[in-house]
Amino acid sequence: MFKFIPYVLKSLWRHRARTLLTVSGTAVALLVFCFIGAVQQGLLALTSGGDAGRTLIVFQENRFCPQSSRLPQDYAGDIKKMPGVVDVVPIKVFTNNCRASLDSIVFQGMEPEKIKAWRDFDLQSGDWSSFSGQDDAALVGADVAARRNLSVGDKFTIGDVTVVVRGVFQSPTAADNNLIFTQLEFLQRARGASDVGTVTQLEVHLNDTADPEALAKQIDQTFHAGPVGTTTRTKGMFQADTLADLAELIGFVHWLGYACVGLVLSLVATTTVMAVQDRIKEHAVLQTLGLRPLRVFGLVLTESLLLSTLGGICGVLGSVLLLSMSGMSIAAEGVTIAFEPSLNLAIQGVLVAVLVGVLAGIAPGWQASRTEIVTALRHA
Amino acid sequence: MPLVEVINVSKEYANGEETIRPLDEVSLNVNEGDYVSLMGASGSGKSTLLNLIAGIDQATSGEIVVADTDITKLARGKLADWRAAHIGYVFQTHNLIPVLTAYENVEMPLLLLPMSASERRKRVEIAMEAVDLTSRASHYPRQMSGGQEQRVGIARAIVSNPTVVVADEPTGSLDDKTTEQILSLLSRINEELGMTLLMVTHDSEAGQRAKRQIRLERGRLMENGKETTSAHLRTA
Ligand SMILES: Nc1ncnc2c1ncn2[C@@H]1O[C@H](COP(=O)(O)OP(=O)(O)OP(=O)(O)O)[C@@H](O)[C@H]1O
Ligand SMILES: [Mg+2]
Questions:
Q1: Which atom of ligand 1 is nearest to the CA of B11?
Q2: What Å distances lie between residue A14 and A11, A275, A369, B97, B101, CA to CA?
Q3: Cβ of A288 and B83 within 8 Å?
Q4: Residue B97's domain spans which residues?
Q5: What are A284-301's pLDDT values in tens digits?
Q6: Of B152, B148, B157, which Cα lies nearest the Cα of B195?
Q7: Statement: residue A110 has pLDDT above 90
């Protein structure tokens, strides 16, 4: 069969304009397909990651936007004493935009030693000591730094908050690359005296045996009668709830991904049908020379497979490039979904292209292989 | 034992109400090394008979035995394999593959046979030399004249050393001088390479070049004023 590959390639090259249009159309559709896949994966990573089920987030009852949740910081001490709790991290969150946005900036104010203990990242530039020793210092996630063109030493202002970049970090947790860490006290004071002593949320780390559900209930009951009521959920649940509206939208958009696959199918099939109709006589000549009908079927299938796979690979490469270069993300209410390329997604994209190539070739291939030789030879 | 035996073959086409019967129980023997020309009026069924012998069309009834194989009994796939091994077909309009060079066109039938690459190269070179086109090997069909294209077509038909070479009006679209070239090439293939040749032609002068002349008239095959028969029928 491989002996006929040069013939197939030359046939594709002969109609290079048509081939190029089909390949580029396929590439664009697969780029969109992979992009949508990356958004879904980003959402999934937030709600199903390793610590999503074993870490609790305590938020003020019935509050959604980070600015409106104000928990007394000393709740942390009370929770720390509960059995099963390893550590409690008080976090002040500040965001410039509470609604869903592609360019949200999210600050998390944390005590430096807690950042060190519970956040996993590598500093790409800057150093830790200049961050922990300076009041208005910030560690900026790699994606924000790229998007806002920030580097160590830069001073920038978002709303009432002005910070100096003391480090740029890269985290294996994609969503964290869209965060800016500052010192807790700095962020509490940044927006006036009224925030001192309050935090937005408490992050509760559990030991391996604790029951997250039971502890969440216990925390909420403890503070039920206190000055500020709480709602405690696992981190996964918290993020899913926060992003519920966006998740619905993303769920809808994923149908667009399927539409892209359908588009590629009809595009490649159309081109292959045209190629077969152009070559009715040529296929009859090949059969006269002794090509089995099944071989003719195989040649047509190879042609559509090549078209679609070539386009698929271009589209997948394009999406990987786009996703990794742009560092895009979408955030709502202080929670960020990162759009990340992944090998898994790339393989999925190429497989979809291969499958579509085979499907698109079946009908035209069958038509070509069933043609009556004598009738086709009389064809002008 | 004749090489090709056509036994009581009929071909009918249903055309609405009426039935056309271009071949009406015809029989014919072709021996190894024969050069047979087939003539007759337009629409008499010459191409039909040729295509039946070449295994690309199906008879309504009758048998066609080529080198001991009854090809009317073969399934599509097997028949294709059989064609690859036994038939060389020269078309009126050469029908070369436009995206392939002369060399690649001639090589095409060999890709279907079990053969090493070096054996293939040797055979293609011999065939190209036989039609005197070695210098044009890397040319594409559109870069060649009609006569040259037809010579490539002939090289493609003889390259696999087939049992029978069939040609359907091989000079039908060529001028006199080129026609002469092609006809003497075909004669040489028959005489020097010993290939069995069956040629359909309109041109009686071309027909005279063959060793045997057969005419198709009203569904019957005539040779020297008598209807042709097959060995099979004579012994039966
Ligand atoms: N598919 C078909 N359906 C109906 N009739 C057909 C079909 N193919 C051929 N015929 C008829 O069969 C007859 C024989 O055709 P054929 O092509 O064999 O003639 P021919 O002798 O080769 O003619 P020419 O010299 O013009 O090439 C013609 O009358 C033609 O109209
Ligand atoms: Mg004819």
A1: 12
A2: 5, 11, 21, 12, 13
A3: yes
A4: 31-59+68-220
A5: 999 999 999 999 999 999
A6: B157
A7: yes
Strand order in the sheet with B196-200: B87-90, B164-168, B196-200, B35-40, B212-217, B220-223, B226-227
pLDDT of amino acid A13: 94
Residue A42 · residue A340 · CB < 8 Å? yes
Residue B19 lies in a domain: no
Is residue B126 included in any domain, yes or no?
yes
> For tokens 């990340």, what's the residue?
A340
CB contact under 8 A, A290 and B56: no
Q: Which residues of A touch B99 (CB under 8 A)?
A: 7, 10-11, 13-14
| Angstrom distances, CA of residue A294 to CA of A121, A364, B7, B110 | 57, 13, 30, 18
Residue nearest to atom 3 of ligand 1 (CA): B13
Ligand 1 centroid from CA B207, angstroms: 20
CA of B112 to the centre of ligand 1 (A): 30
For residue B153, give Cα distances in angstroms to A124, A364, B97, B190. Answer: 68, 28, 10, 16
pTM of the predicted structure, to 2 decimals:
0.84
Q: Is residue B227 part of a domain?
A: no
The structure tokens listed for B231 are 């060995």
> What digits encode the pLDDT tens for the residues B109-149?
999 999 999 999 999 999 999 999 999 999 999 999 999 99
Evaluate whether residue B14 is within a structural domain. no
Count of structural domains, chain B: 1
**Residues A308-357: pLDDT tens digits?**
999 999 999 999 999 888 777 888 888 888 888 889 999 999 999 999 99
Compute the nearest-CA separation of A363 from chain B (Å): 19
Residue B57 and residue A374: Cβ atoms within 8 Å? yes
Q: How far is the CA of B174 from the centre of ligand 1 (A)?
A: 22
ipTM value > 0.85: yes
Task: Report the distance separating Cα A285 and Cα B16, nearest Å.
Answer: 29
The CATH number assigned to the domain holding B136 equals 3.40.50.300
For A10, the closest of B51, B100, B111 (CB atoms) is: B100
Q: Which residue has the tokens 């092609």?
A: B182
Q: Which residues surround ligand 2, an ion (CB under 5 A)?
A: B 47
Helices (H) and strands (E) in chain B, counts: 8, 11
> Taking the domains of chain A in order of start, what are their residue ranges?
2-46+245-377, 62-228
Ligand 1 pocket check for B13: Cβ under 6 Å: yes
Q: What is the C-alpha to C-alpha distance for residues A202 and A181, in angstroms, rounded to an integer?
A: 15
**What is residue B136's three-state secondary structure?**
helix
User: Cβ contacts of residue B78 below 8 Å, gap of 6+?
Assistant: none
DSSP state of B67: T
Contacts of B194 (CB under 8 A, 6+ apart): B32, B33
Cα separation, A199 vs A109, whole angstroms: 9
A287: nearest CB among B80, B100, B156 = B80
Q: Is the CA virtual torsion A304, A305, A307, A312 positive or negative?
A: positive
Please check the confidence at residue A161 and state whether its pLDDT lies above 50: yes
